[in-house]
Amino acid sequence: MDAPRAPMADVIPLLGQLRQYSARSARADVVIALSMAVTLLPTGLAYGALAGLNPAVGLYTAMGSAIVFALLTATRFVAVGASSTMALLTFTTVQDRAGGDPGRAAALTAALSILVGLWCLLGAVLRLQGIAEFLSSPVMLGYLAGVGIQMLAGQVGPLLGIPTPHPDPIAKLWYALTHVQKAQPLTAMMGVGALIALVLLKRLLSRVPAGLAVCLAAIAISAAAGLADRGLAVVGTVSGGLPTPAGLPRVSWDDLSALVIPALGMAFIASIETVSAVRQTEADVGRRIALYRETASLGAASIATGALGGFPPMASTSRTMAARAGAHSQLFQLITAGIVMFVLVSGGPLIALLPMAVLAAIVMAGAPKLIDVTGFQRLWHGWRAESVFALVTLAGVLAFGVLRGLIVAALLSVGQLLRRTARPHDALLAIDGDNQDPREITEGTSPHPEILIYRIDAPLFFANARRIKQRMLNLVTTAEPRPRCMIMDAEAVFYVDATAADALAELAARLQALDCPLVLARAHGSVLSVLRANPYHDGATQQLRAFATVREAFITMRQT
Length: 560
Prior knowledge:
Blueprint: H1 8-11, H2 13-17, H3 23-50, H4 56-72, E1 79-81, H5 84-98, H6 102-125, H7 137-160, H8 169-178, H9 185-204, H10 210-225, H11 253-285, H12 291-307, E2 314-316, H13 317-326, H14 331-346, H15 348-352, H16 356-366, H17 373-382, H18 384-400, H19 402-422, E3 426-430, E4 439-440, E5 451-456, H20 465-477, E6 485-489, H21 498-513, E7 518-521, H22 525-532, H23 536-539, E8 546-547, H24 550-559
Parallel strand pairs: 5-6, 6-7, 7-8
Antiparallel strand pairs: 1-2, 3-4, 3-5
Subcellular location: Membrane
Keywords: Membrane, Transmembrane, Transmembrane helix
Transmembrane segments: 30-50, 57-79, 105-128, 140-163, 183-201, 208-228, 256-278, 334-367, 387-414
């Protein structure tokens, strides 16, 4: 008997979104698509140039990823496409290995995008989306700020027309600043003028699509003055309009092995942004969205983009929030992709006249969005230690580059987690009256020194078990007079591993030898089961007395 077939709406959720579609919904999707396209067209070209590729590659990335993701995602509003972060990571990964060969760079980029997609698919199959939570917000704040600074630094040379021989963005910035005399006046005038125009338009005429307006004006000036013939670098030929499948035969096995780890890092970053964007829309869907499906959709989009010669895509939180405000279905991404396709087919000769300095200005104008100065200030005033992690991550990105900086960010996040779990919050508690809840003793002595009440707010495992055991022993052995009982408030202890079971058994045996028995209060059933079956130290924890509440334990042991 054949297995039942999945409904097409499950395979392509867009079909389900269109079941109750109306003319009003269509108008809303078209308006959102037009709004996004006028922003996406200039930024897509700019990100293609940022990746060190033909600027049109940014539009190929936007178009291919939007089509595939729109057909596969279960969300209505999440938007994917070319991003500055992925473009910079692509440049960092590909350009040195390409050796200045544009064709080889394009092939390596295509392979990188496919590898990123495969990593995303593997993560979806293994349900590894939760790993994205291991990068804390302060660490991501520092990482994105470092990426933003790297972007700004790398665009100073192209903005001024100073050829920079160094691949590293910071080295590029230093070279440009120390060789200002090499700036090409025409390029510098166009680049600086475009940057000023972008800033003024965004501040004074926020409703005007600044990037598109500046690009159109620059193309008009370039065409009228024949700037390309006067030495100004322009986009040039846009590969015949629509993209064609990339030439992967130029990629060797050595190339693939060198790209695997960078692709993993890029898949990690893309997954984090995708998970964030999806969670922004869960309330609108009215149900929990399967994150593994969205990661798989992103992976498929990245593979499709690679096949077209684009670089890896990423979800855009800002575009997602814009779609959430007006779109009714993923049709808005298909319409946006159609607009991009139309521009590629019909606007190739115009795009070819666009000065590269203008694209550098667009990247520089957008980079400050990644540098959240207000976020750093709030973090510094409220969480000083975490702000240090953010600053160290930023410094790691600037010192070691974007990809190695990602490793620094991951290590710092894991370090934060280990530090907090190895040194969790604990406290001595006191019970003052019959009707009062136990309180933490922050200063002074306990009103009942003969009975110590100790609370630990963490699971017990190898990283903290021995420290907590020693802490409890010290509390008993250093107290005067010697307490006759220790109550452990285990409400927050939801897990005990083998190392912790051994440590608790040793603690129980040693406290019993000191005539200060250990008793448990508010212990979870699963924890009690482990301790009741614990063989360590002759089963010292198997007979521990356990009480439902701290007060019950206190009253009983006081009367004993």
